[in-house]
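Entry 0007
Protein: ATP-dependent DNA helicase
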Amino acid sequence: MAKGHAYHLERTEYTDSLRDDQRKLIFRVIQTINHHQELSAPMVMSYLMGWGDTYKSHRYATIFCSSVFGALLREFPELKQRTNSRSQCGQHNHEMDSMDEEHDMVSSSSHRENDANGSIAVTEMLSEDTNHLGVASYNNAGENEERVEESTAASSTVEDAEQIVTLDTDETGRLYTKSQVTDYQFRGDGLKAYNLIDFLVNTYEVDIKKDEHKRRGRSESSSNSQSGRPLNDRVYYHLQHPKHASLVRIVRTSGHNTLANFIGFHLIPRSDDGETHAYYCACMLVLLKPWRNIHRDLRAESETWAEALETFLNNADNQIRKRIEGFQYYHECAVAAQENIQKKKAGDAVDEEDYEIEDDVENEEEEEMTEEGLTALLADQTNHREKVYAHVALAHATNAGIFTDETMTPTAHTSQLLKGVTKANDTHIRLLRLWKEEMDKAVVRQNEIGSNKDSRERGHASIVVNGEASVQPLFPQTQPTCRLNSSVHDGAETAMTPLVPSELNKDQKRAYDIISWHLRENLAGKDPPPLRMVIHGEGGTGKSKVIQTVTELFGELGAQHMLAKAAYTGVAASLINGKTTHVLCAISPRTTAKISDAARKQLQAEWTHREYLILDEYSMLGKSFLAKLSKNVSIAKQNTNSRATQESFGGISVILCGDHHQFPPVAQSKREALYWPSNAMGDNIEMQIGRSIFEEFVVVVILTEQKRVKRRNAGCAPTDFSTYPWNDASLVTPRHAVRIRWNEQAILKHCNDRGVSRLICNAEDKIKGNEQRPLTMEERYAMARSMGKNKSNGGSEWHKMLPNAVKLAVGMKVMVTTNLSTDLDLTNGARGEITEIVLHPNEPPLKGRSVVHLHYMPLYILAKMGRTRATTLPSLDEQVIPIELSSQTCRINIRGTKRHKITKTIKRTQFPMTAAYAFTDYRAQGQTIPHVIVDIAPPPSGKLSLFNLYVALSRSSGRDSIRLLRDFDDELFMGTHDAPVIEEDERLRATNHSTKNWWRQINTNI
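Output (C-alpha cells):
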C-alpha cells in the first residue's frame, strides 16, 4: 500500500476538473429550469421531500348528517316534515301533482377499513340497484376511511329507505352497527362539554394497542427529561360503547387544520321556512348543543323547539352563531343559483325591459300595496308582445265570424241566468259522500278487470296438444275488455274501439299477428324471448286501433291479466284504457326519490302476472325516463321472473307505439330523445342505459296507410263559423297567451248564447302549517310577483299552478288540469261540460247578474265528461262526475324585519279545471279533434319547430275538418330535422324490412 500510494497526489487536476464539471452541470440544469419555470422555495422543498406537486393545507373530518338526523327523527317522529326541494311557486306539480311526498332522512353509518385488532367490518347493502347508490369517501387523519350512501326516501318511515350500514364486532365478538351517534353518545367524560361537531372535528379515534406501542417506543428512546411536544390528551369511551376496550379518542392539538366535511349537507333545513322551523331548530340543537340522551337533553318537556334553540343561543359563543349562519348561507346560494339557471333558460324569449334582475323583496319598500295595485299587477304579468300576439289572433277570429265585436251580456230572465246553480244543503253533502264511495268502488272494479283476479286464482289458459300446440280460451263466457261510454258531444274524442282482425290493413295485421303469435307461444309454454317491438306511424294510421284489437285478443284468450297499457300523459293513457307511466310503474316525479318497501311490495303484487307492456306516444319518453321504467318494472318482476335481473324491463315483452316526429320529451335536453345517439362524454349513465335499452327494439312495423284523411285533393268550401259544426270547433295554438284569451272570449260567447251567468271563483290562499291563516296584502303581492317573475323569465311552472281565478258557467266546456283518477279517465286533459254548480252553504243569495263574484268556494261542480270508465252514479245522469276542490303548495319570499328574506309556504285551493275551447299543441298531441282551428303564425319570441307544425296540423281527419286561423311563414315548412331524426327514419325503415323477412320465415315454419 505504501509503494502504491507513495506518489499519490493529495489533489489532482483530474479530480478538480471532474468536480467543476459536475458543479457546472448542476448549475446549468438549474438555470435551464428557471428559464422555463421559476420554482418557489416551498415547491422545491416539496419535490425534495417527495411530497409531490400538491399540498393540502387542511384535512377534513366527515360528519354524516343522515345518521344524525335519522336518530333525531326516530326519537321525535312528529318532526317529520315535507322537506323535499320545491320551487318558488308550484315547481313540484307534474303528472302526479297530487302526490305530496315526505322526505325522511335515512340513518346511515360509517364504514372503516379492517385494522390490526382483527375487527370484522361487514357492509350490508339494502338496495335494489347498487348502480344508483351515491357513495362518498373520506380520509380522517390517516387513520380510517368511511363511506356512506346519500339517499332521500319518499316513504313515511326511516326503515323503508335504502341503507348502507357497517357492521363490526364488539369486545365479546357480537356484531353491532357502527354509528357516529353511538361514538358521541358514549364519549368519555373529558369530552362532555363537546358538541357533536366539535367532537368529530377536534378529536380522532385510534386503536388502543397501537397507541400504547407507539407511546412505549417513544418513552424508551427518550431521556429522562422528555423532549419534543407533549402527548395529546387521550379520552376513553364509556363502558357502554361496544369498542370501549379497543378504541380511544385523541384530542387534536389546538390550532389544528382539520375542518368539518358534512355529507348530506342538503338535509339541513332552511331557517326561514315556517313549515319546517321546528325540525330546523331540532337539527341545530342536535349538532351544536352537547347531549348524551337525545330525547332528554335537547330541550325541556315544557319547551318548544324554537324556545329551546333561543335559550341555547342566548348563552352560545360567536363560533356557534357563525356556524348557524353558514348553514343558512348554503340555502341562500342554492336559491340564487336556481334563479340564475332559470334566467339563463329564458334566453332570447324575453325582452330586456321585461327581465327582472333585482329580487322582488328589495323593490317593495317604495310601493304602496292596495287592492287596485294588486289587480293591476296580476293583469300586467303577461309579456306585452304576447298580449299583442293574442290580440291579433282574436282579431282574426272576429273577422272570420267566430266572435263578435259587441260587448256580450246575457239578457235572459234572472231565473234563467242562474239555472243550474244551487246552494248546497245536507242532501248535497250526503250525495257527495255517496258518490265518492261509488267512484272508489269503480276504481277497485277497474283494477280487478285489468288484473283478472279470478283467472289468476283458477289457473292459466288451457293447452290442447294435437300434433302442435293450440290455445283455447280459459273462460268462454269471459267478457271482452270494457268499452267506454260514448262521448256527450262531438268535441270529445272517444276511446278507440277494436276491429275484427280481418278488417285490419296489411301493416296493421302484421303487427297484430306478431303479437298474437308471441302471446300464443307464451301460453303454450314455449317461453319465447321477450318481444321488443315498435309500431310506428303518422297520426291517423291506426296505431290505437291495433292496440285495442290486441287488447281484445288478450281478453279472448283469457290472458287480459298479462297485459298492461300506459302512456306518459293522462289523456293519451285514457284513449287506450290504460294508466299513466308514473302510476303504473310507481315512478315519482322527484328525480331523487326511491321506492319504499311498501310501494315495492304493492308494485310486485300488481305485476305478478303481467308479461306484456304497451307504451303509447313513446316520443314523449326520454332516455332517462325509459331507464327508470325498465328499472321499476325489473323491481316489480324480480320475484316472479328469473330473467328480471338479467334483462331490461324484468324480462317482459314491451311494445312501443307512436311517432318520433311528434313532440320529444318536454322541458328536457334534445339529447334525451330516444332516437338521439349516445355520447359517453355528454350523457349521464341513465341516458346511456336508456339508449341501450331502446336499441333492443329490433322488431319494427311501420304503418303507412292513412285512416283519418277522407279527401286529399278536395278544395275547402267557404266556412260558416256561426253554424254547426264549426261553431263548436276548438283552437290549437302553441302559445298560452292565445289560449287564455280565446277561452275568455269563448266563455263570454257561451254565456251570451245560452243566457247564463258567469261565476268568478277566486282561489283560496292560506299560509300552510299551524297558522292556517289568509295571506296578508304583502304576502299576496309577493305571490303575484313570484308568478309574474316566473312568466317574464320564460319559466313554464306558472301555468301548472292552480289559477288565481276560475270562470264558471253552466253548459261551458271544461278541461281537467290534473290527474284526479286515471282509472276513471279523470286525467290531466280530460274534457267535459258543466251541468250544475253547487255553491257553498254560506254563499250569500245571488242576484241575477251576468257576472257574479263568489264569496266562497263552491262545494263541487257536476260535469258530464266526454269519456269515463266510472259507473252511473246515484241521482246523476250517465257520465256525470262530481269535481271537487284541489290543493297545491308553493313558496314565496317576503322581507323580514332586518331586510332578510323569509320563506313562506302557501297552500292554494282551487278547482283543477279550465275552459276547453282552446288548448296548446302539446296538450293536443295524441288526440283526433273532430273540427279544429289551428294557429301556426310566427310567435313573438322564439320560433316554431317542425314538431309544433306536425302535431298541430295532424289533429284533424282531413281538409274538411281543419282551418288555419291566420297566415303563417312559408319558410317554416322548409326547415330540416336534426340529423338523428333522419337517421332514426332510416333505421326504422331498414328494421321494418328486416322484420318483414323475419316474419315470412316464421310463417313458413308455423
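Curator remark: Residues 203 and 252 are 5 Å apart (CA to CA). The chain has 26 helices and 37 strands.
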